[in-house]
Amino acid sequence: MATGALLLGNLALAQSATTSILSSTLTSEAICALDDQLLSISVGGQSRGDAVVKVKMSGERFFIESRIIQPSEAKYVLSRTECEEGVFLELDPRLNPKFDPLKQALQLQPVLELLANNTVDFRRDQQIVPTVTQPSIGLDFGIQASEGFSKTFSTTAQGYVGAGYASGALATYVGGFASFSSDDTSVSQFSAAPRATLRYSVNSRLELTAAYNAPPDQLRFRNGLQHFQGVRIDARSDAQLFFPEIDLQLPLDADIQVNVNGRELRAFRASAGTLKLINIPFQGFGASVDVIINDGTDARVNNYTYFADARTLRPGAYVVGVQAGLLNGQRSLNAQGIVGLGHSVTMSSSANLLDNNYDAAAALDYIDDFNTANARVNIRGSSQKPLDASLNLRYGRVVNEHFNVSVAATIPVAQPENLNLQANASYQLNRWSYTSGGRYEFGQQTLSLNGTAKYTFVSGQTIDYGASGSYDFRNKALNLNANANYTFVSGQTISFGVGKSPQGWQTSLSTNLTPLPKLKVGAYVAATSLPTLQVIPALNLSYQPNSQNTLSARVNTNAASASYVYDGRVRASLSASSSLTNLSSASVSGSLAGALSLNNEHLTLSQELGSRSILVKTGVAGIPLQINGVQAGVTDSQGNVLLSRLPSDEYVTVRVDVDTLPFNINVQNDRATLRIPSNGTAVLDWRGNITVSRYIQFFWKPGEPATYGTLRVGDLAYPLDDEGNGLIGSVPDGTPATLKSDDGNRSCPVILRNAQDKITCQP
């Protein structure tokens, strides 16, 4: 009853305020005759610029230029008046206008209840770009070698080669792996073995895989042989899982970017009001969603972490994987799965068998907006060892928006008196955040405590302190540690730590700085009394001139090393290291890995083969592309690139990294969302979407530049500078155009040639 009375009272007050203002009705002529003031207007802290406002001081009434109000704020408007100067609006008094005559400013506060509710459905609203799917055919290769120099020389090398084919429901890979090693004291050793996989996609919910000397859960592999021979079955009730609904309160129009596991899923402009995000897709057993909101006042990040709980797995939904075979000659069985039981409960389990050793786990999870509860049973044993079982219990509670607590217990079934108890709490208030925790192990008679405090400055810099300690009652041993970290807005850090144990003490100071945009410097120095007093300095340098090349070096009192990594169309690395205490001990190593894929009778070089890939055709060389916000490749000299390092998502977004493009490259659509085929290559034809402009100098006649003229190509007009130069868009060779003077009294026809950077009027 009290709540209902309060709501009715608030409604009555709002209606009374509106009625009192409207009761003193002004005619249109009276409103237009009010004094004009040029005021700086802001809504919710967002500047709307300077605007003319008609002010009636006696009633504190304001009539604002209509351009100040966004379309999403239409319900803010009480009345509309047309004057000679334009249209003026009177706004709802619930916007609580605050007029500052000294600063000549008018501040308005958003009212969410007057704004619309909007929904973005990531499943329904996806604008999928149609693509052509081709078979994926290719050859991958790689080699890695190292040479060691000490009292004896040693050489090791390993390499692989293989061919892959993927189309429709079938994907297969056949290849071989070889290794070689030799040194001065032993006989050279050489080994080689074949490896292969075959995967058949029955449908989007069921996949069957057979593997020989290869991991059964992937079709690409490099580092050595995995001696597994067997089969695997993957099944799920739905090919796509979705996060629960996310509600956002947007007082202002804002740019929204949604990232899943750190990768951009979608970016869009949202109107002010309540925004619901539904059907955000993810793969596997859980992930993290970041929603970045930028409304012009600041950029904030809302993070949502979900496991595949009952809110993402509907009742009866499941994900299951089972594999069986021989691993290193021993029987191997592995299974894991999760199923939604409904009522906010899920059940998950896993089991592993390797020869005579086994382990298994089963868990029940409950989760809602304020509570989480988990019960898990683990067992482990073998034919030679007795069964070892434990019960894990955990409960967490969101007390309010500032305070969280959790408690947990681990109970050995055979010796319940040796249980472990743990408790944690976190508290956040304004710019301070605190965490604390404790653990007591009854079997070891050890008590551990820890705590942290973090302060975030207005500028975004942070400073945090931490301390931890443990006491072993049985051995009367005390361990203490403390640290402090300062993080700049740019991500650069300075850290200090100190520790004390029964064996001695140690302290450290480190920093991670970026003195130049492409240079990172890390410095570290530690002093310790273990076992004797010594000081250990270290220096790390990393220089990355672009996204494909990285040079790094590291040196400390014991050793020095340097390396170069190329992460472009292929992946290559070269490194060298040497001991500073024994200069005769050194090593050099290098590696190269890549793949050749056949598409449309053209070979494309890439880092690796994949049963699923995207061939992007732009017609322009050197275009950097991203997959879900992660750098994925750069187009070759023909303007093509094969993107094979794809996430497991059903849909991906291919995006041009426009921030790194030269100024003369124009992009019409910088992104496209595609549905990746189960097997094969999706072809995205972006030819014509990306164009290159170039400078051309125009002359009326030899030696007379067309100063400040204009070049007209169809409906397009390109201005020229004081020397007749103009940045001209990409056009077909031989395109006719017209050159005109700035006063319009002179013109002539010209023909644009791709091979010419100087063009003169035709006679």
From TrEMBL:
InterPro entries referenced in this protein's UniProt entry, alphabetically: FimD_plug_dom (IPR042186)
Protein name: Fimbrial biogenesis outer membrane usher protein
Organism per entry: Deinococcus irradiatisoli
